[in-house]
Amino acid sequence: MVRSILVAAVALAGSAALQLDGAGRAAHAATGSIRGRVDIRAPAVDAEPRPGVADLGMDSMFHAVERRNAVVYFETAPQSAFEGSGAVHVTMSQTNETFVPHVLAVRVGTVVDFPNNDTIYHNVFSLSKTKRFDLGRYAKGQSKSVRFDEPGIVRVFCDIHSHMNAFILVFAHRFFSLTDDQGRYRIDDVPPGTYTLVAWYEGSIRQTRVVTVPEGGGTVDVDFAVQ
Predict the structure, then answer these.
(1) pLDDT tens digit sequence for 127-144
(2) Which domain holds residue 207?
(3) Which residues pair with 201 in a beta bridge?
(4) What is the C-alpha separation between 70 and 74, in angstroms, rounded?
(5) If you compute the radius of gyration of the chain from its CA atoms, what whole number of angstroms results?
(6) Which strands make up the sheet holding 122-127, listed edge to edge?
(7) Angstrom distance (rounded) from CA 88 to CA 85
């Protein structure tokens, strides 16, 4: 179900980006932007500090990092949103026994590099149906990579450190945004039309909103409150 949502069906013809001008010629309609804030109201869980697996120049205690990033995306998207590709490299490092960042949002075709910045061995693997992989154990200064070629959600783990986990959301279209540290997001170049906007947080869809970008374009504000 989640995979089908991230694939995103083509939206209705009313959201097409082309229209005819007075002379009957094709002209691009004005596009708009959708912006807002995702307010994470779920209580923050402060994990107890845990001893490091090894004390080889690192801090002797591991402290959990608060995870408050959400992803906002279109449940359906116009055909133009599927054009192009995500043929780029991004990074999810292993730093202080944590995957950094905890959440990545990427397009199909993106290659994710997993460098080990710690002075201990790590392993990166996933059993997700979207992308199964196991990079094995490797030391500080080494990096391995995975190309994500299908849309869906990928859970990432380390088989040495059970407290390490992360999410990679892979989209077939370009209408998505990862919130910043203040919970803000922005999606630009949206053709006029009505769309279902989804707020995802920590493994599940938490809220949806129906939003309309007017024919003249402009900026539409949409906020979410996630429990």
Answers:
(1) 999 999 999 999 999 999
(2) 1-16+27-42+183-227
(3) 204
(4) 14
(5) 20
(6) 103-107, 165-171, 152-157, 122-127, 132-138
(7) 9
Omega before 115 within 30 of 0, i.e. cis: no
Length in residues, the chain: 227
* Angle formed at CA 167 by CA 111 and CA 93, multiple of 5 degrees: 60
CATH number of domain containing 195: 2.60.40.1120
Give the three-state DSSP class for 114. strand
Q: Which residues contact 174 (CB under 8 A, 6 or more apart)?
A: 77, 81, 84, 107
Q: Is 29:191 a contact under the CB 8 Å cutoff?
A: yes
- Tracing tokens 């869980």 back to the chain, one arrives at 45
The pTM (predicted TM-score) of the whole model is: 0.80
Whether the Cβ atoms of residue 71 and residue 176 lie closer than 8 Å to each other? yes
- Look-up of token digits 């002075």: 119
Assigned domain for 76 exists:
no
The pair of structure tokens assigned to 90 is: 């991004």
Q: Which pLDDT does position 2 carry in this prediction? A: 52
Nearest one of 111, 72, 86 to 173, comparing CA atoms: 86
Q: Is the dihedral of CA 159, 160, 163, 168 positive or negative?
A: negative
The answer to whether 198 and 11 have CB atoms below 8 angstroms apart is no
